[in-house]
Specification:
This protein has eight helices and seven strands. By secondary structure, the protein is of the alpha/beta class. It has two domains: 1-33; 37-245, von Willebrand factor, type A domain (Rossmann fold). A five-stranded mixed beta sheet has the order 3-2-1-4-5, sandwiched between helices. A two-stranded antiparallel sheet has the order 6-7. Helix 6 (172-181) links the parallel strand 4 and strand 5 (185-190). Helix 2 (55-70) packs parallel to helix 8 (225-238) and helix 5 (132-143) runs parallel beside helix 6 (172-181). It starts with a helix and ends with a strand.
Amino acid sequence: MSGSRRRPWRAMARRWAWLGLALGLGAIPRAAQPASEAVDTALVLAVDVSRSVTPERYALQMDGLAKTFEDPEVQDAIFSGTHRSIAVALVQWSDRAQLMIPWTLVASRHEALVLAERIRRTPRSSEAFTCLSVALQLIQGKVLPFLPVATERSVIDVSGDGHDNCNSSVSVDSVRDSLVASGQTINGLPILEGEEADTLEQWYSQHVIGGAGAFLLPAAGFADFARAMRRKFITEISALKTGRKG
């Protein structure tokens, strides 16, 4: 083979050598590297932003979620699984639902802290009626099907301070049952503050939670949200058999 025909192959070999060196030195951005093939848990955080959630209450929810990912014990739980990683998506819901943070891999403490800051800075999507059925339909049709990695299990984590009041044509129960039938687990964190505080835990138990190991862990008001979310998250990620069973 002539020298002129060898040159392109030599040039390509040099390029791959430089690429390998750059990867070894961390010069290529993480997004360009292969993603994890599987995670231990795929977690959808479904957060109520309806009219009853004041700006102060909204800030408490976002800060509480952020603090959860900043907590060393939570991080230890994330990295204790077989794949040492989880995937997280954030949905906000009221009379409509919106995916605010798409599927994000958390496979290191740095990634947990980056996600925490992203959550803390997430703007509010809307503030109207409470319509959990709309949120569950969005999660079923436009979030879970687009999970980019395999997962050992998937959990939908619903938090809110009220019953459904939007008269949706599809009931919460029917969407919940459909999700559970497809293998999903739905856990609940009712925030017991406001006019519906006395009946909300029972409503979540009857209409929201479902699936293998589903449980409720109420927050005693918005100021207690961070504490309740931290405890709930560790239970979910560690697959412990504590908490209130549905």
